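Quick log. Single chain, no ligands specified.
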Amino acid sequence: MSALLFGLPLLTAYYAVNPTFFVDALVPYLAFTTLLALFLIARSGQYSQVNSIKSSFAQKFNSLPSLVIFIFLVWTAAFYSIVAYMFNASYPFPLNSNILTPIGGVYIILIIVTSILGFTRILYRAFPVLRSLLEDRKYLLMTGIFSLAFAAVYLLLVNQIIVAGYNVKLTAPPYVLGGGYPTVFAMAPAVTDRAVDLVYLPILIVQLNTSVNLIVIPFEMVFATVLSLLVGSNIALAHYLITHSGLRCSTKGTVLSTGGSILGLTATCPTCLAPTLVSVIFGGVASVATIYSNVYGVIIPPVLSLVALLAGIIYISRKIKGLGAVQNPQD
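-> predicted structure:
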């Protein structure tokens, strides 16, 4: 799962630059990781009792008063309302980025914090098996590390939070140019529509130099948060199940977890990683690539990804319950 979720996208990203890299590195990489996975599965099920270290962090973090989350939610909505009002009040003239940037930056920070607090609370309370598993410090760290790693891969390769060669002069407002680097400014989406504004307003661009920039979109921060938490949870649950049961009942859960995660890596940006990844996997099949070349490539993959990952958590949780270790999986 780790090889497919992290190494495959990173190697695939170079495919657009050098297609022969597919044969030179990608195929040997997949072959090696497949053999390694089979070896690990063959050794699974030989679990010996070890002393697990309990952690109360997950419980404390998810025991924050609901009022705290509600306050963050209210502040997030309030700052979005301010940004939307400022944009609508200035239309059809561009909104001064010196005003929009600090308010938009606070809004994006609020939406990230609110998403983390909200989605972790939902997962923690909705899935008792996962909640019990997170009491083990090993699985808590595993979930956190893989969630952060997947978020980094997603934002770098799928959403292209780092955009190389971004044309500063065509992008930055006139009053931003000449101020040196690094610089930060917020922009409104090119299309004036309330639904689009809800997803893309404001777009925050951090220009580190003339060719390396960060582009931050509010919706992408939300989707990256929920997708990464689901991926981290699936990996922790799949690891526990495979360790304790081997291949006997873990195949379907692992397929759901990995499949949902890979779908997420093709989501929301039909002009970014998706065409390259689809070309590598399907050998440039035109009908498959076409799916990702329009609005369906933006809408369908996120929905399917979330459904598959949720199905993976439900399926693996039921299998772990069947092992008779629901209340205290580490025993």
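DSSP finds 14 helices and four strands in the chain.
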